[in-house]
Amino acid sequence: MAVTDVDVFTHLTDADIESLGIELDAIRQDIEDSRGERDARYIRRTIAGQRALEVAGRLLLAASSRRSAWWAGTVTLGVAKIIENMEIGHNVMHGQWDWMNDPEIHSSTWEWDMAGSSKHWRYTHNFVHHKYTNILGMDDDVGYGMLRVTRDQRWSKYNLLNLVWNTLLGIGFEWGVGLQHVEIGKIVKKRMDQDDARQRTEEFFAKAGRQILKDYVAFPALTSLSPGATYRSALTANATANVIRNIWANAVIFCGHFPDGAEKFTKTDMIGETKGQWYLRQMLGSANFEGGPTLRFMSGNLCHQIEHHLYPDLPSNRLHEISVRVREVCDKYDLPYTTGSFLMQYGKTWRTIAKLSLPNKYLRDDADNAPETRSERMFAELGPEFAGTDPATGHRRGLKTAIATVRGWRRRKQAAAQRRDDLAA
């Protein structure tokens, strides 16, 4: 089952959690106080560079009918769409640049190059997802209504095709994100006010219609005016560029939410939740992946998903420096800092999705001590005296040590059982 008590799960006292919250607040304040021209120059240059890249891609598509030119233009356009989606659109709409008071780079005015409406996304993502991160029954991003990603979700025959649904979601990710706010399930089951349903549907079709017109009618028609291109080649290029963007965005987001160690929570965790407990839930429910400057930029700096969830409205170009201090906080309170290479984290998400296509009875781990589904019950054998300071080392014993201890016991039990089986054989 999911975590029902963050305090018990992390082995931290109320005083520890309050202190942790104060330290994380201090990091926020330091970044807010130091925002300035360097940051403003970064986002303006990023927007200018992205637009130049998009123009270059479209010119390449118009310049020649050769396959090499088509691929060059398509990939260039796909990269431009990734940057617009990840490092610009996502972050601008989080309000990361609102402090500049620039009406062109403001969360309330930016409309991104996606099928879904920015207005809808700001509610489903900025408000719902970031407030109720990984809380079952509250955060629709836990599986996106299509995938079983934790054993807390009841298995059905539909989940046998988990891998198929994830593939389709990746290819058409912009449409999945766009339809999320429409909540088709509630409309079909008549669990939504008719006026609200009509407004959401009309707003979605209006934005999606404009996007289809731009990507699959206007730009292909404009490109086909060149003797070196055809309407069909331009149409295919735009569709392929969108798929490139969709698959990459899906991969980055899944690496931040579904690898081992990204915990899920129950609604009880929200009752009387303090600022420190909210911080803890964000840290425990998110995961990072490691990479250099290029990978950080192309992921919209969401390789620092932990830091983004702690400070969703701080400039993305500052998350790398913030991560150093957040990691120090995790070490101080003996909390795990979930990270790994991009390929490892992405592989773990696919492994989880594959495993959970099967009912729990066919899975080896129990629902309280599995890589993707854990709860405080996994520490039942530790006893209340475990929390506090390790008398041997003098270091604080928290969640990180608790997990390592329980895993050590499990490995020793498995090794002992294996030896008994070998002797019996």
TrEMBL record:
What InterPro entries has UniProt attached to this entry? FA_desaturase_dom, Fatty_acid_desaturase
State the CDD domains in the record.
Delta6-FADS-like (cd03506)
Annotated GO biological processes are: lipid biosynthetic process
A GO CC term?
membrane
Q: Which residues form a coiled coil?
A: none
Task: Please name the GO terms that the record assigns under molecular function.
Answer: oxidoreductase activity, acting on paired donors, with oxidation of a pair of donors resulting in the reduction of molecular oxygen to two molecules of water
* Fatty acid desaturase domain residues: 69-339
Query: The organism sits in which domain of life?
Result: Bacteria
PANTHER family in alphabetical order: DELTA(5) FATTY ACID DESATURASE C-RELATED (PTHR19353:SF19), FATTY ACID DESATURASE 2 (PTHR19353)
Name of this chain's protein: Fatty acid desaturase
Q: Which organism is it from?
A: Mycobacterium rhizamassiliense
